[in-house]
């Protein structure tokens, strides 16, 4: 029987048994058909009439695993497949018969940072056509969160956090290790394409991102329910992270006065939402029902990935410890097929890392004009 044993943050001593050559050839042949991404200009400048999607081994089989790299796929992610491996270390184990997808997380509270792992996990599951998987968190964070569990439950309700258990597991149907958590299409720098990292604007769309968000929406039985233009302000209030209270930087101390001024100037209804207080499902539903998502630069704007593409917009304000060269959410908006507008200056830094509108009429005029325009 093919097995892999994982304990804590390492795969223990293994002995390779059966070659993966046949499996590699099968995967290499099929993957190009499964991905149908149309945004050709965002990959390589050459051969824009044919988008090549294929997997090639970057190294020979070594230490009981094969390494694959997806060439011409945005950030050329690397995936390690552990299969047909046995362990010679005796002892009690919990047997797992489902395919195991191993995820290395970077942050269990910040949805932007979490999105790297989510996209990479989705990529691996789609690539290898996996079903009924178990998610294995193999990192040193030593914690979990309701947000993390809910977001990953779209892949599996069975989630094993190796940093929180002393148990030893025996995986009987292969282990698929996804690319590193902080590298994904959101932040990558491609060698020859137009994705240049988080500090440079691009205008690429990503079917991969839209496929994942639509998969999450449909799997949770959600749908947009909009009757008019809805504008949502993303508030950055105090909320809990585990057992601790967390105070975000860049909170707007005169937020209520600012939003009221926008309502009066535009005549539009604007609701205030603190995503840090909502569940994942509630946050996605808010995004689906929002035409314009506004806020100071921060993870709340990541929920824009779930907005209806086309006419939906993101309005981002900068200030404090995040200047306008942080293009995270411009590029997320582009990948998701949304419009984007930003205000690079106008907020004052006060009280440490907090911000203040301070009755800045020019800033109010800029945002009001944009909101009136998109509401027409």
Can you put this structure into words, describing what you see?
It is a single chain. This protein is of the alpha/beta class and 376 residues long. The protein folds into 2 domains: 174 residues, no CATH class; 148 residues, Flavodoxin domain (Rossmann fold). Helices cover 26% and strands 22% of the residues. The protein has 8 helices and 22 strands.
Mean pLDDT: 78
Q: How many strands, which pairing sense, and closed or not: the largest β-sheet?
A: 7 strands, mixed
The N- to C-terminal Cα distance equals 64 Å
The low-confidence parts are: 1-41, 43-61
How many domains?
2
The strand order across the widest sheet is 4-5-6-13-9-10-11
Rounded to the nearest angstrom, the radius of gyration is 22 Å
Order of helices and strands: EEEHEEEEEEHEHEEEHEEEHEHEEHEEEH
Count of β-strands: 22
Shape: elongated
Structural class: alpha/beta
Helix count?
A: 8
The helicity comes to 25-40%
Strand content: 15-25%
């Amino acid at each position: 029987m093919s097995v892999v044993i994982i304990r804590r943050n390492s795969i223990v001593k293994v002995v390779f048994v059966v070659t993966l050559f046949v499996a590699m050839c099968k995967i290499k042949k099929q993957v190009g058909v499964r991905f149908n991404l149309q945004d050709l200009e965002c990959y390589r400048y050459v051969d824009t009439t044919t988008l090549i999607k294929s997997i090639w081994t970057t190294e020979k089989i070594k230490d009981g695993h094969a390494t694959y790299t997806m060439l011409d796929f945005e950030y050329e992610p690397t995936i390690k497949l552990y299969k047909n491996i046995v362990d010679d270390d005796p002892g009690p184990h919990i047997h797992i018969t489902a395919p195991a997808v191993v995820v290395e997380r970077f942050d269990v509270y910040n949805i932007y940072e979490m999105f790297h792992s989510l996209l990479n996990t989705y990529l691996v599951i789609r690539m290898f056509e996996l079903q009924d998987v178990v998610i294995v968190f193999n990192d040193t964070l030593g914690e979990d969160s309701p947000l993390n569990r809910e977001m990953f439950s779209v892949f599996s309700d069975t989630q094993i956090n190796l940093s929180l258990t002393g148990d030893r597991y025996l995986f009987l149907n292969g282990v698929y290790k996804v690319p590193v958590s902080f590298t994904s299409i959101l932040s990558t720098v491609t060698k020859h394409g137009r994705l240049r990292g988080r500090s440079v604007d691009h205008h690429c769309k990503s079917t991969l991102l839209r496929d994942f968000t639509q998969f999450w929406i449909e799997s949770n039985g959600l749908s947009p329910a909009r009757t008019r233009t809805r504008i949502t302000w993303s508030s950055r209030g105090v909320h809990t992270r585990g057992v601790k209270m967390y105070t975000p930087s860049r909170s707007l101390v005169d937020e209520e006065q600012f939003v009221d001024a926008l309502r009066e100037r535009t005549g539009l209804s604007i609701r205030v939402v603190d995503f840090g207080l909502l569940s994942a499902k509630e946050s996605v539903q808010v995004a689906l029902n929002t035409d314009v998502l506004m806020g100071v630069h921060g993870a709340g704007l990541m929920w824009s990935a779930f907005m209806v593409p086309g006419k939906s917009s993101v309005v981002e304000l900068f200030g404090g410890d995040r200047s306008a060269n942080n293009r995270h959410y411009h590029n997320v908006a582009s990948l998701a097929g949304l419009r984007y507008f930003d205000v690079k200056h106008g907020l004052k830094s006060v009280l440490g890392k907090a911000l203040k509108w301070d009755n800045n009429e020019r800033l109010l005029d800029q945002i009001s004009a944009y909101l009136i325009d998109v509401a027409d």
